[in-house]
């Protein structure tokens, strides 16, 4: 209520300045005065104040010089106009809410923020840590992978990203939130030799990617 009245007061202040400027043509001045009186009557109505009856030019009717029937008819007309304005405002608000809900439902406006602190897993070689979202009921991943390359020393390969391993899964829409279950899955892929105990230099291999471990956090909802 306060915000509505404040907006109306700002409008009235601006319109008053235009009226006092004396630069408006007569037809525009007349229309502006009608807007002012309509805004005042509307504000009085939502604040449960008395309804002021006016003539066609927006001037307050003098009960000493106006008949009772004329006052009654003017009151009916003013009440009808204010009610129409209230219905119009209500309809506009409903349309805005509907459009907002439709846009909200159609736009993927949800996100999941992930901050990787550490990888506690004895690997012995370099590794790749992949994090993604998974639907266990449909048995499929519903997001891209967030990849972090981890060294055999227990630190990120890119040391500049230490304590700054963050990702945002932004491809979540209302359809994803309607899923019955969503899991956060972390996969670890070892990168190196075929066997950790392979010390024979003639058979030594490198750069092979082999699944090493997996972990999951069910029920993100």
Automatic annotation (TrEMBL):
Gene3D superfamilies assigned to the protein according to its UniProt record, in alphabetical order: Dedicator of cytokinesis N-terminal subdomain
Q: Which UniProt keywords apply?
A: Coiled coil
Give a GO molecular function annotation for the protein. Answer: guanyl-nucleotide exchange factor activity
InterPro entries per UniProt: DOCK, DOCK_N, DOCK_N_sub1
Question: What are the GO cellular component annotations?
Answer: cytoplasm; plasma membrane
Coiled-coil ranges per the record? 72-99
Q: Does the keyword Coiled coil apply?
A: yes
Residues of the Dedicator of cytokinesis N-terminal domain: 2-205
Example GO biological process: cell migration
**Taxonomically, which superkingdom?**
Eukaryota
Name used for this protein in its record: DOCK1 protein
Q: Gene name, please?
A: Dock1_4
